[in-house]
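Something for you to look into today, if you have time. What I am after is a single protein written out in full by you. I want to see for myself how the chain folds. Could you add the entry underneath, on a fresh line?
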Amino acid sequence: MSESLVALHLPNAVEVQTQKLLRQIELAHTADDLFRASDRAAGFVLGLETVNVLNATSIEGLYKTFEAAATARRQEHEQ
């Protein structure tokens, strides 16, 4: 697990789902797959934010983590 995720101190269930979503982003074969995986990850974070499961810093950290993973994958596709 990346240091950025460790620093967020996520509850176990949230951490497990975050890892699954990051893996989906990493395995996206097409731009459409990447869009769907990124959209699903953003929806997951929005859901956590809506029900106040995490503090604002953790929510922002998750958004940034998923965005960074999607950006990295997008750049791999462009090469």
